Amino acid sequence: MNGSSESAVSDRNGAFLERIRRALAHDLRTPLGTIANYAAILEYHGDAKPADVRVFAGRIRQSAVRAAVMLQHMTDALVLSERQPSEATTDPAGLIRALISEMAVHARFPARGEEPPSRLPVDSDLLAFTWRAFLAVNAEAAGDSALDLDIEIGDTDDPITLDLWVGARPPETPARVGSTKFFESTVEVNQPESCFALALAEELIRLRGGEMGLWGRPGQASSLRVSFPARR
User: Fold this and answer.
1) What is 3-82's CATH topology?
2) Which end of the chain is less congested by CB atoms within 10 angstroms, N or C?
3) Please, which residues have CB within 8 angstroms of residue 164's CB and are 6 or more apart in sequence?
4) Which contiguous run of DSSP H or E holds residue 108?
5) How far out from the chain centre does Cα 52 lie?
6) pTM, to two decimals
7) What gap in Å lies between CA 101 and CA 85, rounded to an integer?
8) Which residues in the chain are classed under CATH 3.30.565.10?
9) Phi, psi (5° rounding) for residue 110?
10) How many CB atoms within 10 Å of residue 20?
């Protein structure tokens, strides 16, 4: 590995670790702060009505679950960042069906497109982490509506590009945005854990020398594109 390649890898490592640091210093403070605030209310307001106590207890429970899920996402991301990418090939259609079943997502696949190739040289664990987060964002925004899912594979082998589509595709190739810009349209999403996981996935893909781009609005028409450099 030459000096420029080593520098690029070091920069990507630093960006990923900075994202983890921000998560520990900021993202987790929101649910933990909520727990502390409502616990203080219960502690120092002995005359609280039973109905109010139940509300506060519910919010404490919700925030505790949220913090636990976010910590699990960080743990999974750190494990992925530390190990070498899997050398095995991935079956995209099989993976998306497994995630639909695991998450109990109401979805149709393939809805409009065709079955993608059965084997691609991409890391199935990283792809599963990324697609799981994207499906969670869309499933929450869609509510009781079914998700129409399709997978499209790029025409070139380097980089290897996979598009996961939700709903109808636009007539022209859409402009892609990063996770921060995409989340500005997630007003329907009340639980930020899936957005948090998707932001971690974006950093993990960059760490592997790839790219992630998003388009659309969750639960309606949206898509996620991941590109990985070909294995050498």
Assistant:
1) Helix Hairpins (1.10.287)
2) C
3) 96, 131, 134, 149, 150, 151, 223, 224, 225
4) strand 107-108
5) 34
6) 0.84
7) 25
8) 92-228
9) -75, 140
10) 16
pLDDT band for 5, please (50, 70, 90 cuts).
low
Average pLDDT, the chain: 85
C-alpha to C-alpha distance for 143 and 117, rounded to whole angstroms: 30
Calculate the alpha carbon distances from 151 to 14, 108, 161 in Å. 32, 12, 10
What is the gyration radius of the CA atoms in the chain, in angstroms? 20
CATH 1.10.287 domain locations along the chain: 3-82
Question: What residues have CB less than 8 Å from 56, skipping those under 6 apart?
Answer: 38, 41, 42, 48
SS3 171: coil
- Decide the pairing of beta strands 222-228 and 107-108: unpaired
Distance CA 205, CA 124 (A): 12
Q: Which one-letter amino acid corresponds to residue 151? A: I
> What pLDDT is recorded for position 189?
54
Retrieve residue 4's tokens: 């420029």
Mean pLDDT of 21-45: 80
Q: What is the pLDDT of residues 174-224, one digit of tens each?
A: 999 998 888 876 655 556 788 889 999 999 999 988 999 999 988 889 999
CATH architecture, domain defined by 92-228: 2-Layer Sandwich (3.30)
Question: Tokens standing for 57?
Answer: 């207890």
Tell which residue, 136, 137, 154, 171, has the closest CA to residue 210: 154
Tokens at 12, concatenated:
């990507």
Q: Is the peptide bond between 159 and the residue preceding it cis, with omega within 30 degrees of 0?
A: yes
| Side chain identity at residue 189, one-letter code | V
